[in-house]
Specification:
The protein is an alpha+beta fold and about 300 residues long. It contains 5 helices and 18 strands. Strands 3, 6, 7, 11, 12, 16, 17 and 18 form an 8-stranded antiparallel β-sheet that branches. It has a two-stranded antiparallel sheet with strand order 1-14. A hairpin with a 2-residue loop joins strand 6 and strand 7.
């Protein structure tokens, strides 16, 4: 059987650096010396975007005019509103953090790597940077993304080629914007939202160190690298590039209003640049330079010179 073409790239895994989990970062209490707060903004689709619901529906049920297509893979919904589940967002941004930090390689068959583990009964365990932020077996993560409802944009029918399982165990995969599977065989019908569609982005974080919040902000496209992550399916077929706009980050001042979570006095803006600077010892700059080359807005075909929508 001929080898399938590759429409993804790989980054050599940096050795994992796992350390003991400090009790101050768990959910037993909110530490005023750490950062607990929220972020909000808009997620803008720079390419067509598909996050599947698992349902196959007739195109007319989705408002699509496609008489030759019997069934379409539907976009995820909350009620009647197209929505990106928070779990999909968390997985996309976690995978980026795993790429540029010395984190574990989870969900792999390679015996060279292992998942992080945490004993939730005794509150002990060694976790890598990504697992400390996003969670591991027995350990609840400290970053949570809300479902992101669509606020602007339309849907459309998009056909992609059959997808193949990637190969290779000794590196992490990602999908550069410029590597697009342009095979003529396009037989998988997806309901996508069109480029320019906008979704409400909302997330919470608890007991993060300043540098850890900086890692999350880098994955969200902040800082000099200005990454445009990929979300959803069809990443190898020109789908999924997104950009975060109007990002606001606020910290909850526990010592000011511990019992008044919604009090205006309890919140203050977070210095994004300071957090990214504090993250400097935690990330691999060479990896981020590579990701900037492949995942920045300028690498997206068709929007190289486009301004913000």
């Amino acid at each position: 059987m001929p080898e399938q073409p590759k429409f993804y790239a790989g980054i050599v895994v940096h050795p994992e650096q796992a350390t003991q989990v400090e009790r101050a970062r768990t959910y037993l209490r909110m530490d005023p010396e750490r950062l607990t707060g929220r972020l909000s903004g808009e997620l803008v689709a720079l390419q067509p975007l598909h996050v599947g619901s698992g349902a196959l529906l007739p195109p007319e049920d989705l408002g699509l005019n496609a008489p030759d297509v019997p069934l379409v893979k539907a976009f995820a919904r909350r009620g009647d509103l197209r929505t990106i589940p928070g779990s999909s967002l968390k997985g996309s941004f976690r995978s980026l953090v795993e790429l540029f930090t010395p984190s574990c390689v989870c969900k792999t068959r390679s015996r060279q790597y292992r998942d992080c583990r945490y004993d939730s009964k005794r509150h002990i365990g060694e976790l890598c940077p990504a697992c400390k932020m996003f969670g591991a077996m027995g350990y609840q993560g400290q970053v949570r993304f809300e479902d992101a409802p669509q606020q602007k944009g339309d849907n459309a029918l998009h056909l992609i080629p059959p997808q193949y399982k990637p190969v290779g165990k000794d590196y992490r995969r990602y999908y550069p914007h410029a590597l697009i599977d342009d095979r003529d065989e396009r037989s998988w019908p997806l309901e996508v939202v069109t480029a320019g569609s906008r979704f409400v982005l909302s997330a919470q974080f608890i007991n993060l160190m300043e540098g850890e919040l900086g890692l999350l902000l880098i994955a969200l496209g902040q800082g000099k690298w200005a990454l445009c992550p990929k979300v959803g399916a069809g990443k190898s077929s020109g789908l999924g590039a997104v950009q975060i706009e109007g990002l606001g980050v606020e910290r909850w001042q526990i010592d000011r209003a511990y019992n008044v979570f919604e009090s205006v006095d309890a919140w203050e803006p977070v210095d994004i640049g300071k957090c990214i600077q504090a993250a400097r010892p935690l990330y691999a700059p060479d990896v981020l330079d590579t990701l900037q080359r492949d995942l920045a807005r300028a690498a997206i075909p068709g929007v190289r010179n486009a301004g913000n929508d």
